[in-house]
Amino acid sequence: MDFPTNLIISTIPQKHIMDKNVESFGELYTSGVDGCLLKIISEVLKFQYALKFPPNLNYGKKDENDNWSGIIGMVQRGEADLGIGQIAVTRERMEVVDFSVPYTNQDVTFLIKKPGLLPVSWTIFYPFEGSIWILLLCALIITPALYRLLLNVQVSYSRVLIHFYTSIFGKSILVKDNSLKVRFLVAFWVFFALIITNRSP
C-alpha cells in the first residue's frame, strides 16, 4: 500500500512548538519543535499536508457520551489523518487512536516562594529544630525538680535550676548526697549537657 501524498494534520498553534508561517510568496511553512518535526517527516515520506485546528483548541477530552474533542476527536472521526502536538499518552486515548513512539518527555513539578534568610538574632536557635528545643526546655525544668525531690532537703527550686542551667556551660553541680540515685541523675545530666554543648550547628 502506497503512502498517501496528501494528509490533513490536526494540531494546535503554539509559539515555539507549532508556529504557522506564510512566506512572502504565499507558501505555508511550519516552525517550532513540532513544526520542524512535521517538516522532516513530510520530506522523508514525500507527502504534502494541510493544517487543521480543532475548534476548541485542545488535545482531546472525552465527554459523558464518550465523544472525544480536540485533536484526538478529529483523528478518531477521520477528520484528520494525523495529529501532532504535545499530547500526553493515556490509557483512555490509546483505546481510540494509535500513538507513535514518544519523542519528548515532560517532567511535572511544582514551585513555592523562595524563603528568605532568617534574622541574625535567631542564629542561636539554628542548631536544633523547634521540637528539640521544647524537649530540652522540658528536661531543664523536670531534672532539677527530680534532683530536689531526691535530695529531700529544703533547697529552693530556682537555685537548683540555676545550678543545672550553668552546668550546661561547664560549671560543676554541687552534690550534697552521695546516694546512687542522686549520682545517677547527676551523671545523666552531665552526659546530656556534654552532648548538647558539643552539638555541631
From TrEMBL:
Regions crossing the membrane: 132-150, 182-200
InterPro entries: Glu/Gly-bd, Insect_Ionotropic_Sensory_Rcpt
One example GO MF annotation: ligand-gated monoatomic ion channel activity
Subcellular location: Cell membrane
Entry GO terms, CC: plasma membrane
Chain ranges of the Ionotropic glutamate receptor L-glutamate and glycine-binding domain: 13-77
SUPFAM superfamilies: Periplasmic binding protein-like II
UniProtKB keywords: Cell membrane, Glycoprotein, Ion channel, Ion transport, Ligand-gated ion channel, Membrane, Receptor, Transmembrane, Transmembrane helix, Transport
Record membrane topology: Multi-pass membrane protein
Domain of life: Eukaryota
PANTHER family, sorted: IONOTROPIC RECEPTOR 100A, IONOTROPIC RECEPTOR 20A-RELATED
The protein's name: Ionotropic glutamate receptor L-glutamate and glycine-binding domain-containing protein
